[in-house]
Structures are given as C-alpha cells and as structure tokens.
Amino acid sequence: MHGPISDVVPSTPIFEMYPIGFTSLSEYLERKGLQVRIINVAMKMIKYPKFDVEDLIRKLYPRAFGFDLHWMPHVQGSLALAEITKGLHPEIPVLFGGLSSTYYHEELIRNYPFIDYVIRGDSTEEPMAQLLWALRRNELPKDIPNITWREKGELRVNPLSYVPETMNHITIDYGHIMKKVVKYRDMTGYIPFTNWLEYPVTAVFTCRGCSYNCRTCGGSAYGFSHYANRKKPAYRDPELLAEDIFRVCDHLNAPVMVIGDIYQAGEDYGERLLKNLKKKRLSNHIAFEFFKPPSRDQIAMIAECVENFNFEISPESHDEKVRHAFGRYYNNDDLEQMIADALELGCKRFDIFFMTGLPYQTYQSVLDTVEYTHDLLERFGKTRRLYPFISPLAPFLDPGSEVFENPEKFGYRFFYRTVEEHRRAMLSPSWQYILNYETDWMNRSEIVYSTYEAGLRLNRLKKAFGLIPPKIADETDKRIREAVKMMHKIDKLVAEDRQGSGQGSLEELRDKMASLNISTVCFKKELEWPTRFIRMNFLKILKTILLPTKPNIRPEERR
Ligand code: B12
Ligand code: SF4
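The joint structure predicted for all components is written out below.
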C-alpha cells in the first residue's frame, strides 16, 4: 500500500520516471562516438502487466548495462534488475549512477557483487564516456575520475574530481530522444511516466546543485558539498536555457517546467533568461518554481516576457517556526504578497505545496496548515488560480541531507540507514512501515494519519472553492476514507503477524490496495497545467527525426 508518496509528482507510486540526466548522458555519449539506448523497464512493466523482463534483457548485448539509483525509492527495483541482468550476462559490466549511488557508492560495490562500477557525481557524462572507452579497450579505469570499482575483489575509490562548473557542455535534447524512439522503435522504453503522451510536460534545468539548505534535502548545498564534491551550483547559461525552451515549444504544445529558481543565481541571470524568452511569443505555459518569494518587480518582469506563466512555491508549513526549522526563511507576509502580486500580474496558475513530517510539526500543526490554506482560498480563491497541495515527506527522508547525517540535532530518528535496510523496507506492506524516520513531534503512524486527515480536509476545501469538479472531489473523498480503513486493516494484520497469530491475508488485500494507490490525497490531474488539444507539432517532429540537428551547447564545447 504505497499511499500518497507520489501524489505530487507525475509518476505512479512505482516511480517509473527515469532521471532526466539519462537524456543528457545519451546525447553526450553519442557525441563521443558511443551508441546508447534508454529502456524504461518500469514503464514497460506498468503498461504490459505480462511483460517478460528477463526476455528483454536476455536479447540485449551492450558493452555495459547502466542502472540508475538516483532516487532511493528505486533501490529495490534497481538492485533486482541489476542482479537479474548479471545472472543473464555475467560477462557484461553493470554500472550504477545517480545521487543515491553516489552517496552509497562503497556499500554498493562492497555488498552487491553484481555491480561492477559506480559513476559518482551529478555530472557523469564525461567520466561515463571515458569508462566506456576504457571498457572497449579492455583497460582498467585506474585514472578515470568519479569511479568506484572493484579490482581483484578489492574496493577502489577514484577521486570525485570531475565536477564541472557549468552545465554548458551538455544538453537535455528532446529531439535526440525522438530520433532514438524511431531508431529503436520503442516508444514505451523512452516515455518518462505513464500518461506522458496525453500530458507531455517537459522540464528544462537552470542548474545542477543548489545554494539553499533545506534540512531534509539530499540535493541541498550541504548534501552536494558533502557527498558529491560540489561546492557551488553549476548553472546553465540563460541564453542556452532559453534556447532549450524554444526547442521544446517548437515540438510540443504542452507546459515546460523550469527547474530551479531563476533568481537563484542572481537578478541578472533571471533577467537574461526572460529577455531571451521575450524574443519569441510562446503560447506554451511556462512554469517557474521559487525557493523564496520573488519581488513584485521580478514577477512583473516575468509577466512582461512570458505570455502564459505559472508559479510553484513550497512553504512546507503555515507555521513560520516549522518552515524556518526546515531551512526556508521567509514569512507568511512575504508569501501572501507574492500570491497577491502574481495573481494580479496575470499568473495563470499558482501551485503551493505543503508537507508533513517536518521539524516541530505536530498532528495539530498539520491540520492548522489546512486551516491556513482555507484563509488563503478565502482571500485569493475566487480567481480559481491558486491550488494548494499537501503531501508527506515520503517514502524516505533523503540520505546525505543534513537531517540524515545529524538526526538528533533536528529531532529525528531513523529506522533504516543502509542500502540493504532501505531495500528491505520497500517490501513492507504499507508506506507507514516504509517511512525511514519519525520525529520528536510525530511517530510514523501520526505522520501517516495526519497526512490522510489533511488530504481529506483539503480536498473538501477545493470542492467548496470550485477548484475540482464535485464528482471528482467526492471520489477522492471516498478513496481517502477507504485508504485509511485499509491502513488500519494492514496495521492489524502486521500486529497479529508479530504476535504469531497472523492469517497471512495481506495478499488478499493486494488488488484493493492497487486501486487506492493512485491519486490518494489529491486527484492526479489537479497537478496538470493547461495543454493545447493537439499536443504535438508532428511536422516539426518529423523534420527533427529526419534531419541532423546541432546540440544546444556552447560552440567551444562542440569538439
Ligand atoms: C528536478 C527534481 C525532480 C524532478 C525530476 C525530473 C527528472 N526526471 O529527473 C521531479 C519533480 C519529477 C522529481 C521527483 C522526485 N524526486 Co526529485 N529532485 C529534483 C531536483 C530538484 C533536481 C534534480 C537534479 O538536479 N538533477 C540533475 C542531476 C543531479 O541528475 P540527472 O541529470 O538527472 O542525472 C545525472 C546523475 O544523477 C547521474 N545519473 C543518474 N542516473 C544514472 C545512471 C547511470 C548508469 C549513470 C552512469 C549516471 C546516472 O548522471 C546524470 C547525468 O550526469 C533534486 C534536488 C537537487 N537539488 O538535486 C531532487 C531530488 C533528486 N529528488 C528527490 C526525491 C526524493 C524525489 C521523489 C522520490 C519525491 C517523491 N516522493 O515524489 C520523486 C521521484 C520521481 C520519480 N522517479 O518518479 C531527492 C532524492 C533523494 C534520494 N537520494 O533519494 C532529491 C535529491 C531532493 C528532494 N528531496 O527533492 N524530482
Ligand atoms: S528542497 Fe531546498 S535545498 Fe533542496 S533543491 Fe529545493 S531549494 Fe534546494
């Protein structure tokens, strides 16, 4: 019973989305003369329940197999798939990468003999190219940066010294992906999440790394500097970023999410990006996320340069003490001023995200957050452009975050710390037992039930303010209540099992659980920004597939 762990991201609770870096890796490696195929195995398993994973892998003979262990929730699947692969092709090297792999590199090589190499860091394109060429030449990767490997049974940890200062040598090129879909005649293998074809939202990246320090975030300045050797974010030039957006909008009539606050690198960065965007009147919705509320002038600049703009911000809690303890230092006045300015200046949609499982946050505080969203909707709800969400910090609190490293300091206790403990946790019957932490203010059960209670109340508010159709709201209401009942049933079975009186009937609940796992505390489609009826520019896509294209990188990088 996965619960609402993926309610506010596009994936199902299987987290079928692959890291966007697969795209830049693929383009970069091909530029360096290597052939790459991406296969989203989770997606295939979801789409075709009888899909034969072993059969797929048995027929592949690459130079190496790469698996992401970027997000910790992939831990069970990534390891299982890697083990199956090694069993079928003992002679082909198995590579791991991603932020979680970087954090756990030594444990992965030590404890899982089916993993041969871990490529560490947030920018693996170049070390990966060097490793693959070395494998081709049958050489050991002794001098290749960022690699953790095994030599005659001994752990080898090469320095994590390849940490590029910008993101101008790589590109997230959706055109490249379109060509590959045709080359391998494999649409499902490349699709990032289940309903992407109906809602082809895309993302462009301002940077890798972050200059903020949210306490539970494994991608914070603290996390990146401690385990990924990144001392400051690597930004993408705003001119290249604008071109990334143009290229997406040329092909897709769907929203584009700009990942990373455009003002994080300073006022000038945001202005340069916006001035470039102004050169073309884009009709796509462009979504901007903010790490702190922007000023009215900054919002006005966005309004001047982008026709359809949407905003996202995550204050996490209505309670400033909780928010500050989490590492976000703005107050409610700043937040409300931002909402007022944004809606007045034409923001098409404003998403605001709250979370459960935070420092100083009690059960009551979670419910008070919903009360606060009520106040916000009273004030701004008539526009029907303000959408509040609440979801849990789940299934895992990030390894490598400040809280993970110093739990007592922040009032947290962890149940699982190693890879193996996390992997086993993923096999637990419900997300309550998967959660890797509890706090001084809420135990796991309180985190779980406060989330459902808050979801229920927020859903009713959204119905009252006309943000979701009544029928959908009623269905969500019913689903939340059924989910709570199911959670209690599971608790009972687990308790019986511990006392040795269990009837082993968890299996019987499986089908029912599956129907409660999607859109648990909110309706998934609520997250969707407007998309045009015809979502793709087929002529343009055809042209891109057939003709050679130049990568969107700095000219000096085109070597
Ligand atoms: C953007 C983002 C997202 C986007 C993802 C877009 C995408 N498809 O990648 C969205 C919003 C969808 C998202 C969702 C989630 N996210 Co997120 N996300 C981020 C964020 C803000 C930036 C990621 C980033 O910079 N990537 C750039 C680089 C680092 O990664 P990349 O280019 O994709 O991949 C490179 C390397 O990682 C590596 N690599 C990755 N895989 C592999 C595999 C191989 C073989 C090799 C060689 C290399 C390699 O090479 C790539 C190229 O150099 C980070 C926070 C941060 N500041 O980093 C959190 C972060 C990565 N997310 C996190 C989490 C927890 C999640 C969710 C699980 C949350 C949830 N419960 O819903 C989901 C999982 C979604 C899924 N899989 O379905 C945590 C991960 C902690 C951990 N160790 O597990 C982070 C660190 C912080 C956070 N809490 O948000 N996320
Ligand atoms: S959660 Fe905070 S630290 Fe993590 S990426 Fe977002 S702003 Fe940066």
